[in-house]
Design brief:
Strand content: 5-15%
Structural class: alpha/beta
Number of helices: 12
Order of helices and strands: EHEHEHEHHEHHHEHHEHEH
Bound molecules: 1,3-dihydroxyacetonephosphate
Strand order of the largest sheet: 1-2-3-4-5-6-7-8
Number of domains: 1
Largest sheet: 8 strands, parallel, barrel
Shape: globular
Amino acid sequence: MRKPIIGANWKMHKGTPSEAEEMLVEFIPMVKDIKNVDIVIAPPYTAILKTLDTVKNTTIKVGAQNMYYEEKGAFTGEISPSFLKKIGCQYVILGHSERRNIFNETDELINKKLKKALDNNLIPIVCIGEHLEEREKGNTKNVIKNQFNLTFDGIRKEQLKKIIIAYEPIWAIGTGRTATPEQAEEIHVFIRKIVEDEYDKDTAEQVRIQYGGSIKPSNAKELFNKVNIDGGLVGGASLQAESLYQIIKAAEK
Ligand code: 13P
């Protein structure tokens, strides 16, 4: 049985320590009795230390939204996996569609980052997903397969089992237009089948696949009820304690 995981991707919001703390102080008591859902908060870099400090006596884990693949050096503006690990982050989001589309990140770059994140014992949350035009042309599965093959190139079975895959259809992100549970489930089944074909059945059954894209308290339950949807990566609705809590409640099995 896979444990659901909810990631709060704060994107470029709540970047000051006081903003992060204010939200978390309200949120932490709400989730104190949640047992069978993993919770990850991914704030902007500038609020990571405060977030780590605020959640330190809870089961809530902290992640970064990005990183570079080098350990150190002349890479102005970048953050290394070992920095994240050493300060206490356990997760890192990689290949988010905003990184791919706004900052031109390629599957090959994400693959390099993924390997370094694993080398540093960070748990990567790796995002894949299609554009609206690709879906409308009936190309969704080709796009997903291609992204999977390039992004996970060279990743071993034991490594894949630790990775969280986030299926985030780009047309559903920040648009209010959620994939229907059936649309999401169809692609989650497809991704699990790719894992089975490329690795084996056991790996496919173990790997957790989150859905992301306009998750709200009102649609979370029907998405998470689907057998192959193991929680979600939440943007806008993760910024308020109450809505994030409601989404986490919806993921409890
Ligand atoms: P929204 O929940 O705001 O649509 O964002 C989804 C997302 O991109 C999570 O990574």
